[in-house]
Amino acid sequence: GLDERLASRRLRVDAVVNMEVDDAEVTRRLTGRWSCPKDGRIYHELFSAPKKRGICDECGEALTRRKDDEPDVVCERLRTYHELTQPLAAYYEKRGVLRTVDGSDTAEDVFVRIQKVCQA
Questions:
Q1: Positive or negative: CA dihedral 62, 67, 68, 72
Q2: What distance in Å separates the CA atoms of residue 62 and residue 14, rounded to the nearest whole number?
Q3: What is the model's pLDDT at position 1?
Q4: What is d(CA 63, CA 56) in angstroms, rounded to the nearest whole number?
Q5: C-beta separation of 103 from 110 below 8 A
Q6: How far apart are alpha carbons 5 and 108 in whole angstroms?
Q7: pLDDT attached to residue 116
Q8: Which class for 101: exposed (0-12), middle (13-18), buried (19 or more C-beta within 10 A)?
Q9: DSSP 8-class letter at 12
Q10: Is the CB of residue 32 less than 8 Å from the CB of residue 25?
Q11: What is d(CA 20, CA 90) in angstroms, rounded to the nearest whole number?
């Protein structure tokens, strides 16, 4: 559908970036996120943990997890991705526009990789 809409405007997809990350890593990243409902600060159990577990450093409010970051929901999101979204990689690979990068490093390193494949 995207290709048809773009074609009607004389546009086309030049590149599609596919970030590959192991399901276990995706789960670890998503289920470790916590936020403060009062001031919106974001924490992560492994990467940017609050000073006191479960408590916002700034306002002292109890941290909460988004419903879509609950382990069972993440599992369902991954199942849906593998079933409905991942197959698009083969489609764009056949068209010669797929650029795959390892998304398991730091955000900064992944960003550099994305820049490199988009300049190629």
A1: positive
A2: 45
A3: 86
A4: 6
A5: yes
A6: 33
A7: 94
A8: buried
A9: -
A10: no
A11: 14
Question: Which pLDDT score, from 0 to 100, does residue 113 have?
Answer: 95
**CB-based contact 42:49 (threshold 8 Å):** no
Regions in the chain scoring below 70 on pLDDT: 120
Cα distance between residue 106 and residue 7, in whole Å: 36
The three-point CA angle 73-19-64 to 5° equals 35
Q: How many CB atoms lie within 10 A of CB 10?
A: 6
User: What pLDDT sits at residue 28?
Assistant: 94
Residue holding tokens 């419903």? Answer: 67
Please report which residue ranges of the chain form alpha helices under DSSP H.
Answer: 2-8, 23-31, 71-80, 87-94, 107-119
Bridge partners of 99, per DSSP, are: 17
**Angstrom distance (rounded) from CA 26 to CA 6:** 31
Round to the nearest angstrom and report the end-to-end CA distance of the chain: 26
b/e 25-56 (16+ beta carbons within 10 angstroms → b)? ebbebbbbbbbbeeeebebbeeeeebeeeebb
